[in-house]
Design goal:
The complex is a heterodimer of chains A (about 230) and B (about 475).
Chain A: E1 6-19, E2 22-35, E3 39-44, H1 50-57, E4 65-70, E5 73-74, H2 80-90, E6 91-94, H3 106-116, H4 120-140, H5 156-168, E7 174-178, H6 186-201, E8 205-210, H7 213-216, E9 221-226, E10 229-231
Chain B: H1 22-34, H2 36-74, E1 77-81, E2 87-88, H3 90-99, E3 103-118, E4 125-132, H4 134-140, H5 143-146, E5 168-172, H6 173-176, E6 195-200, E7 218-228, H7 233-236, E8 239-243, H8 244-250, E9 259-260, E10 262-267, H9 273-290, E11 303-307, H10 308-311, H11 313-351, H12 353-361, H13 366-410, H14 431-458, H15 461-465
Parallel strand pairs in B: 4-8, 5-7
Antiparallel strand pairs in B: 1-10, 1-11, 2-9, 3-4, 3-6, 3-10, 5-8, 6-7
Helix pairs in contact in B: 1-13, 2-11, 2-13, 2-14, 3-9, 11-14, 13-14
Classes of the chains: A alpha/beta (about 230), B alpha+beta (about 475).
Chain lengths: ~230, ~475
């Protein structure tokens, strides 16, 4: 495998949590490599550490041991500000429960990552372009008529599509999706998977976590997580 | 999907967090407008600001008014003795003062105690006697403005309009007039012919009763010529003003070596109080050394030179202390506000932990989270302060009408005018006091929001985004 093709690499990741008096080891020396343009599904039973792995890959959490490298740069060696920038520009998160801000409209939720990274003057400088991109994303995801709505006025599938649009706003190199269909019915979930497939075909690298084999089969590669390791 | 072009704005570096304001402004405003619980925080701040604005304005007005009335009554400076015996040779010192460049008016005053008996009534009461020259005293103090009938011609204060040949006296308003059912004075259109027998106990220069062995008291009848309304309850209820020469004779101070009790001085407008008093002290020192060999020079040792604040300190200090206690009490109200804001923010941030997780996942820093909720607290403080100030201002505009209405319908009066010498309740808002209150309210909100905001900033996004946290 050419090193230039590898976008994300996790080496010997350990992660444990304290639950009451006991310590639960979630990840035990996990290794993972993701190539550019791949659509990887991580599958495993509930509590197997799938979401924990995804959070570590997206710099939302830190491993106890081991290292995560993105395009050859170790995340653990980066400053807090660099990690904030990484989360803002390089990765996009899609969560099972959408996690949209109720106080903002659909359009505002989508361009929030662009607004959050800019000074007030910088924002006024790029406001039109950012809004245009947010609108384009929403139109492409079939939400062109819902831009002024509030998240609570949308269906589950629509909310998840808004969350995907928000994740794509800053054109991240890596999209991390944590059970993106876990809260949706089958038909709506398939719609979301169609969107992810379409994004992947357009070159988007995606790492998706799921517990459902049928959903995982829509990805290009399936990785099974068991006992804190990748089962080969 | 990726035919959406990569826009130039994407290569803009992530700015230092302190400049990323826009989303904080939007979110802070939305939290303020959309969350009902914040209305309670705004209301709590507004109520506290309202109460403090009203109470502080009224208190500051009362204290300021009281000080001004004391200043008007006293003049700028008093050279005097606490002793009823008084001090002699004052004419030379008065000449020195009048020749100086810093003095505008000087008034010699006799102060003593006596008995007052209205003619035809079987009533005798103790009064304080002030003997003065009304024209000179009006130049040195605000005495002329306190008169009712002779306000425009204070020199004739002791000339009864019904018979100019009779010796007149000016009574403190509470000695002269009755109050109506609304506690307002029932003014007379012209002074009635009422005689008052005044008895005084003259003292020798050594402080003994001058009339011992003979008639103990000097008694003379004076006729009501006017009344004086200084606005100071203690003064208006107990002082009778007599012509200087008459009072001096009554008090036994008009012998070969004449004596007085005090000299009231008014400085020229461009002379500072401290400078004027120092100059008066310097002249007194010269005067005292010049008179050191005189037979009654020992009486000069009892004389002090005091500015009006020091002279009235017993009353003014009590009032200021009361104001300070009120300030402390409302400081506690401020602490309660901080606590209310803290509780509201704690509840709000607990409900907003998901938002914090989302914001962290899109690259917002912990410091940004503190700023976001700090901005929210600022918005709460500003909104509450504006409402409180507006409410307080409107209430103060109507405070006297409200009090009148309460009195007319329920006979309730905030300050019984027979006990408190105030006309209207002070309602003039001081911009300085207002600025301090608003600043304190906003600071209280920021302090109240600090701990919850700091806790929010320390939340791990992973924990807030977990399914079981929803």
């Amino acid at each position: 495998m050419n090193n230039d093709d590898v976008i994300l690499k996790a080496e010997r990741l350990d992660k444990s949590y304290r639950m009451g008096a006991t310590r639960v080891e979630v990840l035990r020396g996990l290794d993972l490599t993701v190539k550019r343009g791949e659509f990887v599904a991580i599958i495993g039973a509930s509590g197997s550490g799938k979401s924990t792995l995804l959070h570590i890959l997206g710099a939302l959490d830190k491993p106890d041991k081991g290292a995560v490298s993105f395009e050859g740069r170790q995340l653990g060696r980066q400053s807090g500000r660099e990690l904030n920038r990484f989360r803002n520009k390089v990765v996009g998160f899609v969560f099972q429960f959408y996690h949209l801000l109720d106080e903002l409209s659909v359009l505002e939720n989508v361009f929030l990552p662009a607004m959050a990274s800019r000074s007030i003057l910088g924002w006024f400088g790029c406001r039109r372009r950012a809004k245009r991109r947010a609108m384009e994303l929403l139109v492409q995801l079939g939400l062109g008529e819902r831009v002024k709505h509030k998240p609570y006025q949308l269906s589950g599938g629509e909310r998840q599509r808004v969350a995907i649009a928000r994740a794509l706003m800053n054109e991240p190199k890596l999209l991390l999706a944590d059970e993106p269909t876990g809260n949706l019915d089958s038909a709506t979930g398939n719609g979301i998977l169609d969107v992810l497939e379409k994004l992947n075909k357009a070159g988007q690298t995606i790492v998706m976590v799921t517990h459902d084999n049928r959903i995982a089969r829509r990805a290009g590669r399936i990785i099974t997580l068991a006992d804190g390791k990748i089962r080969t | 999907m990726n035919n959406v072009s990569r826009e130039a704005y994407l290569v803009t570096p992530l700015h230092a967090s302190r400049f990323t304001l826009m989303y904080k402004l939007i979110l802070a405003t939305r939290y303020l407008l959309k969350r009902r619980i914040t209305y309670f925080a705004v209301l709590a701040v507004a109520l506290c600001v309202f109460i403090v604005v009203v109470v502080m304005t009224v208190m500051a007005g009362l204290v300021g008014d009281f000080k001004q009335k004391n200043h008007d009554f006293t003049g700028d400076c008093v050279v005097g003795s606490e002793s009823l015996v008084g001090f002699p040779y004052y004419e030379d010192y008065v000449d020195m003062l009048e020749a100086s460049e810093f003095v505008e008016g000087v008034s010699e005053v006799i102060r003593s105690y006596g008995l007052l008996s209205p003619q035809g009534r079987d009533l005798t009461r103790g009064v304080e006697i002030m003997g003065l020259d009304p024209a000179r005293h009006s130049r040195a103090t605000g005495f002329g403005d306190t008169l009712h009938h002779r306000r425009d011609d204070a020199a004739k204060a002791f000339v009864p309009s019904y018979d100019p040949n009779l010796p007149g006296c000016v009574l403190g308003i509470d000695l002269a007039l009755q109050r109506d059912s609304n506690s307002r004075y029932a003014y007379d259109s012209s002074p009635s012919r009422i005689g008052f027998s005044i008895s005084c106990f003259p003292l020798t220069a050594r402080g003994a009763l001058a009339g011992a062995g003979t008639a103990l008291a000097n008694t003379k009848t004076f006729y009501y010529s006017d009344h004086s309304h200084s606005g100071l309850a203690r003064v208006d209820d107990s002082i009778i003003y007599l012509p200087f020469d008459e009072a001096q004779a009554l008090c036994g101070m008009s012998g070969q070596t004449k004596r007085i009790n005090a000299i009231h001085i008014k400085f020229k407008p461009d002379v500072k109080l401290k400078t004027g008093c120092e100059e008066a002290r310097r002249l007194w020192s010269i005067f005292k050394s010049e008179k050191a060999n005189e037979s009654q020079a020992y009486l000069l040792n009892t004389v002090t030179v005091q500015d009006w604040k020091l002279y009235g300190r017993a009353l003014i200090a009590a009032m200021e202390k009361e104001q300070m206690i009120m300030g402390v009490m409302f400081g506690f109200v401020g602490i309660v506000t901080v606590f209310i804001v803290l509780v509201v923010f704690y509840m709000l941030i607990s409900h907003k932990s998901k938002d914090i997780g989302v914001l962290r996942s899109i690259g917002v820093s912990g410091f940004d989270i503190v700023e976001l909720f700090g901005g929210f607290a600022l918005a709460v403080g500003l909104a509450g302060s504006c409402l409180g100030v507006l409410g307080g201002w409107q209430f103060l505009l109507r405070i006297n009408s409200i009090e009148r209405w309460l009195f007319e319908h329920f006979e309730f009066q905030v300050w019984d005018r027979t006990m408190f010498a105030i006309g209207d309740i002070p309602s003039e808002i001081s911009p300085r006091v207002l600025a301090v209150i608003v600043f304190s309210a906003i600071a209280a909100c920021l302090i109240g929001a600090l701990v919850p905001s700091w806790q929010a900033a320390r939340l791990k996004p992973v924990e807030t985004l977990q399914v079981n946290q929803l």
